[in-house]
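Please check what follows.
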Amino acid sequence: MPTALISVSDKAGVVEFAKELKTLGWDIISSGGTAKTLKNNNIECTEISEVTGFPEILDGRVKTLNPKIHGGILAIRDNADHQNQLTKHGIGAIDIVAVSLYPFEETINKIPKPEDKKIEQDIIENIDIGGVALLRAAAKNYKDVMVICDANDYKTVIEALKNKSVTDELKLGLSAKAFRHTAYYDSLISNYLTYEKFPTQASIPLKKLSGLRYGENPHQEAALYGNGTQANKPAVISAKQLHGKELSYNNYLDLEAAWRLVHEFEKPACAIIKHNNPCGCAEGTSVKDAYLKAFACDTASAFGGIIAVNRPVEEDAAQELSKLFVECVIAPDYSQTALDILMQKKNIRLLKQEIPYKEEKNAMEYRMMSSGMLVQDRDNSLSAEIKDMTNRKPTKEESEALDFAWKVCKHVKSNAIILVRGRQTVGIGAGQMSRIDSLQIALKKMKEAVIAIDEKSSSLVMASDAFFPFPDVVQESAKAGITAIVQPGGSIKDQLSIDAANESGIAMIATGMRHFKH
């Protein structure tokens, strides 16, 4: 009779699966906890200790690690020598291996990684050894053994057995899935236990969350994956979608940019993102006020944009948002009246993420390259040391505006120039090869902007994401009426820009920290 070995931590569906196997004439070998479940449901099975002639020891740490188990899995069926060895040692063949591993992922998402490197024993005990070995052995010998690591495959296997349609394709697919599963499992463990920033070998535990409508362009397929070690971290990918069609690859990129930017600010704030760059950002007395100020910066580019706010959306803000074609809105919450208004727009996607974005202290970010990957610390700082560079120091009003401008600047693609009045962007130049070109674009945008009345009297300030190698940007800024500038400093030609600022009475400060964004 064919034999199945079943050893599952997650018992969901296992009783029904075992009953079907018994109906089809299969013998079942099972480990302690699973055997108890099966016997309690009147399903006959043989405990592993009866097969091995050796009891489970070390609190269950050792039970399936035995030649009488692994020999039965790994023996090649059409290899006469292998079969003779099974006979000689009294080992029976095992034809199906169904295993679910100890819940390591669930455990680490309950117990945060300790900074002091003192790993709790509960974490250690949820590292499965025998189960991983069983899956890998069965997956290696997939031509003769079917391996199941996912309860969703119970039905598939039973149907194939009933219809006598167990194909090589099915067995290979189950094998590949098992190896992916153990690789994911091991990557969870290695990530949790690793404190080295850039280890010699690294793996990222990624789990598919959903398919996407398409990639950057409609001809590109795409999917969304989540990092298994970050499952409980507040993020855009875990936001609840309340309304609208499926999100695309670009939607997620822009939502992430908007959500990270808007949480730079403590007061009610709004960020409008287009093609991963802000086209407007502002703080206000309310969400409605912040949105109107952000929108005023570039009313044309805001069309079809992504909007993030850091406070719940109420009726008054929803009425304003509904006037514009918007791809997505993400907020901590929405009043029911606001939802009723916004849901009248069929194509708008509404997302709710109650927990604000917060930069992780040791967060890393990854970028794929051909045949490789770049890894770096996430840019989660703002400034190193603020220094006055010019004879005139910024006024209090200018300092507050410069602080706002610098926070926005961090989130704009290089070369970046940000023009601000009060707590409102009035011109943004992004992604240009020349810094002077970025300034010209920002000035052009400012001429077209509809500046909020209460900000008209505010000083006009500028932020640059990197230093000025030449004085041209400062000289053009003076012509435009800019009164204060924030930049990293650090150019060997800093003095040229300082002299130009002093000649025009511009206050300029250095942050000691560059914010290139590529």
Observations:
- The chain has three domains: 3-193, 236-352, 387-510.
- Residues 283 and 423 are 5 Å apart (CA to CA).
- The radius of gyration is 30 Å.
